[in-house]
Amino acid sequence: MEMRFSRRASAVKRSFIREILKVTQRPDIISFAGGLPNPASFPVADIARAAQTVLSRDGAAALQYQTTEGFAPLRAWIAEHYNREWNLGVSPAEILVTSGPQQSIDLLGKVFINAGDRILLERPSYLGAIQAFQVYEPELVHVPLSEEGLDVASLRAALDEAPAKMVYVVPNFQNPSGLSYSEPARRAVCDALRGRDALLVEDDPYAALRFRGTPLPPLRSYYGAGSVMLGTFSKTVSPGIRTGWVCAPPEIIERLVTLKQAADLHSDALSQRILHEYLTTSDTAAHIEKIRAMYGRQCDTMLSAIAEHCPSEVKYTRPEGGMFLWMTLPEGVSSLRLFDRALAVGVAFVPGIPFYVDGGGDNTLRLNFSNSDEARIREGIERLGKAMREELAAPRR
After folding, report:
1. CA nearest neighbour of 175 among 131, 137, 221, 240
2. Which superfamily does CATH assign the domain made up of 7-43+286-393 to?
3. Among 103, 134, 337, 351, who pairs with 99 as Cys (CB 3.0-4.6 Å)?
């Protein structure tokens, strides 16, 4: 039988990062390629205690089907978190629990994107969002990202050029660049979007991981309640729990719920109850502070090693939080060729090309610092620096 796959199934490519991770499983490879939290940060004992409590106390109810919107006490906790931290006036009715932010992005694509719709993304942009949106066959358009945030003049020009259905941004410690929007940039982006028909989608998985500088309000603080916010517990509790959320106006939540019912009925009910028990009975503030301190040390170690071992022509970001930093090689130097050379000396990273939809990024790369201890970071960057010097000295092809 000939398999007659849909056009969308044929158009979407496998994750470049997932494919790279397959070749970095050898124990001799120091990998800065994955976007993984450090497993030393997982609150294993507290989650075990929470799981035992939930199963002992709630029994069969914890193992039963539940509503699509999610476990009501968890939705209330998420809403209260927004209100306590930023006084956003969020109600539980504005929260939909999802199986991580990747499902949140996919559901937004299902609800809003028709083939040919114009979607504006940062340049570079989160690969997972690019993949999720591409399923629905939109026109993806990059807007340049600077050290201050989205370039507002370019954003206005893109909005004036043709109507946009959606603007997708990651304002805190962006994946892949590690950059964050300044306060003036946050305000200016919202001013540029006000009065347009484009939906603002603010993906914010890393805000709690700030280890330097001052926390800044979400874009919704400047834009108002018409935007969509995405969040996750993957970076502060555990990615294996696969629990995220969408915060959006009720009319959007209603549409998302309908399409989530068609996809999976509801996200993992037991995990939601365990997560809520953990959040309400553990010292989560102290836990997150430990993560911040750990990632701050790891980031500083990587920055120091780059300054010592990498060629001075190589430029790089200096994140104030999150899990990634971004490197830019001299023009004409390919990160794909560098990847092969680096892998030969036992270190891996993600070449920048997959984070662009316009053919750019050949001389860029992403490094993850959260999932390696400081000794391996120093050793890995020394190896990478050696590979860089060899690549810079090699004849251009």
Report:
1. 131
2. Aspartate Aminotransferase, domain 1 (3.90.1150.10)
3. 103
